[in-house]
Design brief:
The protein is built from 13 helices and no strands. It is an all-alpha fold. It folds into 2 domains: 190 residues, no CATH class; 174 residues, no CATH class.
Length: 375
C-alpha cells in the first residue's frame, strides 16, 4: 500500500481524535451548570470536569487570569500562555498520532479481518500514548501559565503531565476504527505482495516471551511500593530542579503493588489478576505481530509493543476499578482508576520490549535461513 493512502488514513484518524477531544473540552463549562450537577451528582460532575478541563481551550475561572497576585505580569499574559499550551497540545497530538499510525497501517495493510482487528487495537493503544505525549510536550507552557514555573519546576511538570489521560481512552478507539476503515476503502482491490518470509511460530513465541519479560521486570520490580518509595525519597536537594521523584516515577512505573498484608490474601490475589492480564495481553500482541506484519521492522514492532503495553495498563486499571467499586455507593466515576500512572512507563518499556522482540526475530530468522550449497 502506498504511503499516500496510509498517510491520508493516519491524518484522518489524528484529526478525528483531536476533534473529539476538542469537542469534549468545549463541554467542560456545561458540567458546572445546575442541571449537570443534579444529574451526575456534585462529586461525579467535578470528576468529569477534571477530565475535560485539560482539553478545554477556555481559560478556567481563576484569579490568576484576572488579578494575579504574587507573580509579576498581567492576567492576560498568563491566559496567553495557556492558549499557547493548548495550541501546542493539539498540534502535537495530530503530529504524534500520524507519525505512529503510518508505520503501523503500512505494515498491517494486507487484507484480512485479523489484520484489521490488530490494526484497530494498535492504533487505539498508540492514540492513548499520543495524547500523553501531547500533554507532556505542552506541560512547560501550562506550568508557566500558572505563574509558579520557577518554584519546584519538576514536581509541577509531573503534575501537568499526568492530566488529561482519561478521555483519550474512548476517543482513541473511535479514531482508530475510523482510520482503519478509511484505509480499507482506499486500499486497492487487488494486492499482490511479493513473497516474504514469515517467522515461524516458535520464533514469534520466543520474541513475545523476550518482550514480555522486559515488561514483567518493570512491573514486578519498579512498580513495587517499596521501590517507589526509595525513588521518591532518593533525590533530595534545593532549587528549581529538586525533588524529581514524581517525574521519574511516571516514566518507570507501570502500576503500583505491595506485598500482601493482613489476614485476607485472597483480595490481594484478585488485584494481581490485573497484572496477569497486562502481561497476557502484551504476550498475545507480541505473538501476533510477527505473523501479521508484512515485514518485521523496528518501528512497526516497537510501536505495536507500546500499544499492547498501553492497552494492558488500561485493562489492569479497569480491573482495579471494578474491585474498588464493590459495595460502594458514590458512583462509578469516583472509583475509576486513572491510567495516567502507567501510560508513560508503557511507552518506555514498550519500546524496549519491541526492540528486544524485533532483534530476537531477526537473529532467529537469520539462523534458520538455509545455507547455500557450496560448489
Amino acid at each position: 500500500m502506498t504511503y499516500r493512502r496510509v498517510l491520508a488514513s493516519a491524518v484522518f484518524g489524528a484529526l478525528l481524535l483531536a476533534g473529539l477531544l476538542w469537542w469534549a473540552g468545549t463541554s467542560a463549562h456545561a458540567l458546572s451548570l445546575p442541571g449537570a450537577t443534579r444529574f451526575f451528582g456534585p462529586d461525579q460532575a467535578n470528576r468529569l470536569a477534571a477530565w475535560t478541563m485539560p482539553w478545554s481551550s477556555e481559560s478556567p475561572s481563576s484569579a490568576q487570569f484576572t488579578d494575579p497576585a504574587g507573580a509579576p505580569g498581567h492576567g492576560a499574559d498568563y491566559a496567553a500562555l495557556r492558549e499557547t499550551a493548548m495550541r501546542v497540545r493539539y498540534a502535537a497530538l495530530v503530529l504524534f498520532f500520524a507519525c505512529g499510525a503510518v508505520p503501523l497501517l503500512r505494515r498491517l495493510s494486507d487484507r484480512g479481518a485479523g489484520r484489521a482487528a490488530v490494526a484497530v487495537a494498535a492504533l487505539w493503544g498508540w492514540g492513548i500514548v499520543a495524547a500523553m505525549l501531547a500533554v507532556a510536550v505542552s506541560a512547560p507552557w501550562m506550568v508557566a501559565s500558572g505563574g509558579s514555573a520557577a518554584f519546584r519546576l519538576l514536581p509541577g511538570l509531573a503534575s501537568a503531565m499526568s492530566q488529561g489521560r482519561e478521555l483519550p481512552v474512548g476517543a482513541a478507539l473511535v479514531a482508530a476504527a475510523a482510520a482503519v476503515g478509511l484505509m480499507t476503502l482506499l486500499r486497492p482491490e487487488v494486492t499482490l505482495p511479493p513473497g516474504r518470509s514469515v517467522p515461524t511460530v516458535a520464533t514469534a513465541r520466543l520474541a513475545a516471551t523476550v518482550g514480555t519479560a522486559v515488561v514483567a521486570i518493570a512491573l514486578v520490580v519498579l512498580s513495587n511500593d517499596r521501590v517507589a518509595g526509595r525513588i521518591q525519597t532518593g533525590f533530595t536537594g534545593n532549587g528549581r530542579l529538586s525533588e524529581p521523584g514524581d517525574l521519574l516515577r511516571q516514566w518507570i512505573q507501570l502500576g503500583a503493588w505491595t506485598l500482601p498484608t493482613g489476614s485476607d490474601p485472597g483480595r490481594w490475589l484478585l488485584y494481581r489478576l490485573g497484572d496477569v492480564a497486562l502481561l497476557a495481553l502484551v504476550w498475545w500482541g507480541l505473538r501476533l505481530l510477527p505473523v501479521l506484519l508484512d515485514r518485521v521492522t523496528y518501528p512497526a514492532y516497537s510501536l505495536g509493543a507500546v500499544a499492547a503495553t498501553t492497552l494492558g495498563v488500561v485493562v489492569s486499571g479497569v480491573w482495579h476499578s471494578l474491585l474498588s467499586y464493590q459495595g460502594s455507593t458514590g458512583g462509578p466515576l469516583l472509583y475509576y482508576v486513572s491510567v495516567g500512572s502507567g501510560v508513560s512507563a508503557a511507552l518506555v518499556f514498550g519500546l524496549i520490549a519491541g526492540y528486544a522482540g524485533t532483534l530476537t526475530v531477526r537473529i532467529r530468522s537469520r539462523a534458520q535461513q538455509p545455507v547455500p550449497p557450496t560448489p
